[in-house]
Design a protein that fits this description.
This protein has 413 residues and is of the alpha+beta class. It has 3 domains: 1-82, Tetratricopeptide repeat domain (Serine Threonine Protein Phosphatase 5, Tetratricopeptide repeat, Alpha Horseshoe), CATH 1.25.40.10; 102-187, Alpha Horseshoe (Serine Threonine Protein Phosphatase 5, Tetratricopeptide repeat); 196-388, no CATH class. The protein contains 13 helices and 12 strands. The protein has helices spanning 2-9, 13-25, 33-45, 49-61, 69-80, 85-97, 105-117, 121-133, 141-152, 157-169, 177-186, 316-340, 345-362; strands at residues 196-198, 220-234, 247-261, 267-271, 274-279, 283-284, 289-303, 306-310, 371-376, 384-388, 400-405, 408-412.
Length: 413
């Protein structure tokens, strides 16, 4: 702290910006957003690109100074004109959202590209999205894939999910569930013991009157995927996601993604000796269930070479991040659950077939099929999965011909 103070007092613009960050976060000094703004301004007035960007952030957030989006744009532009990639990204966001400046997707694309060309992964992600949706640029799924990949290769988790979706849907790239799964797995922390668990068929009782939801609603759970998940939340405003010294909170937990079918929508038909179920959609049950006993929170606050890590949330910046994380975690879990669905179809099909067959046997229903097939209409290739249960069922075919002597044959059906 004393070194930063001496250097800042002597007019070192980098030290002034760093001292402002220390005031902003209360690192080794009493927190003061007003002092942070003062030091950011001293640095910015000397033409320091980092100080200009940080001052723009304070104006955008209205922290330590009255909120002023136009002033934020002015300082972002000064910094961006000096090729500060984070300021270029921030200015692109302002143009995209029409904040403090007239909305312009074309200008947003221009600034995202300048930042992306410098390797900024968030700008690469944003530029990919602009190409995917044709905002401010001619729509091109191939270009979207290209930029998503550049960002994903830098471990940007949002880009990894987006790239997985492109592979899953075959947009801009050859459709591949294997590649989709690869990028979905890259985007999260996978528990090596994670696997798909089928609904327990032993839960059925002989007097079970029919296939109906155990919850009393039209939701029949047929597969559950249990997985370790990690979430992280910046303490700063995530719209700008400024890449400066900052604090963030992460949490690890065990999530149970349950997939169900709506019984009222099931369709079935016979195809020779195979009972075929057509399921319009495999649904993710919401909210996603989590094990509260597995929650592990951690806050890390970093400034320059100094790092503070712990489970205590006495620091206000950690509390803000934790609050935002809890609010957004539900939506994040829903997105992850939808992404994981691509690897759950196989187990879900087996779960539905197993449970129907168990129900039929436990309730002394007539077995009129040899196989059960399940097709999910919302799956990309609508793969037909066939499971054999009743090998002795013959249908219209002969099961066995046994010589009975004197040229006679006993036919067993």
């Amino acid at each position: 702290m004393s070194w930063y103070r001496r250097a800042a007092d002597q007019g070192d613009a980098d030290a002034q910006a760093s001292l402002g960050v220390m005031y902003q976060n209360g690192i080794s000094i009493q927190k003061s957003n007003e002092q942070a703004v003062s030091w950011f301004r001293k640095s910015a007035d000397q033409g320091n690109a980092s100080g200009q960007n940080l001052l723009g952030v304070m104006y955008f957030m209205g922290t330590g100074v009255e909120k002023d989006d136009k002033q934020a744009v002015i300082w972002f532009r000064k910094s961006a004109d000096q090729a500060n990639s984070q300021a270029q990204l921030n200015l692109g966001v302002m143009y995209k959202n029409g904040t403090g400046v007239d909305k312009s997707d074309e200008q947003a694309v221009s600034w995202f590209r300048k930042s992306a060309d410098q390797g900024n992964s968030d700008a690469q992600l944003n530029l990919g999205a602009m190409y995917q949706y044709g905002d401010g640029v001619e729509k091109s799924n191939e270009q979207a894939v290209s930029w998503y990949r550049k960002s994903a290769d830098q471990d940007n988790r949002d880009a990894q999910v987006s790239l997985g979706v492109m592979y899953q849907n075959g947009d801009g790239v050859e459709q591949s569930n294997d590649n989709a799964l690869f990028w979905y797995q890259k985007s999260t922390v996978i528990n090596s013991k994670s696997n798909v668990h089928l609904f327990d068929t032993h839960a059925y009782k002989p007097n079970f009157s029919g296939l109906s939801s155990l919850k009393g609603v039209d939701e029949y759970v047929i597969a559950t995927l249990t997985n370790k998940e990690n979430f992280q939340q910046e303490a700063f405003d995530t719209v700008l996601d400024v890449d400066v010294d900052h604090a963030w909170v992460d949490v690890s937990l065990e999530a149970h993604f349950k997939y169900h079918v709506a019984l009222s929508t099931l369709k079935y038909d016979m195809d020779e000796d195979t009972l075929v179920f057509t399921v319009p959609k495999l649904n993710l049950s919401l909210p996603v269930a989590t094990e509260s006993s597995t929650y592990k929170y951690r806050c890390k606050q970093k400034i320059g070479p100094l790092v503070k890590t712990g489970s205590s949330f006495e620091m206000p910046v950690c509390k803000r991040a934790q609050t935002k994380l809890i609010v957004e975690m539900s939506n994040d879990l829903q997105k992850k659950g939808e992404a994981w669905k691509v690897v759950s179809y196989e187990a879900a099909a087996k779960g539905l077939a197993d449970n129907f067959n168990a129900f039929a046997k436990n309730n002394d229903k007539e077995i009129f099929y040899k196989n059960i097939a399940v097709v999910f209409a919302d799956e990309h290739d609508q793969h037909r999965r066939v499971f054999n249960y009743n090998k002795n069922y013959c249908g219209k075919e002969l099961c066995k011909e046994v010589p009975f002597g004197n040229g006679q044959i006993l036919t067993v059906h």
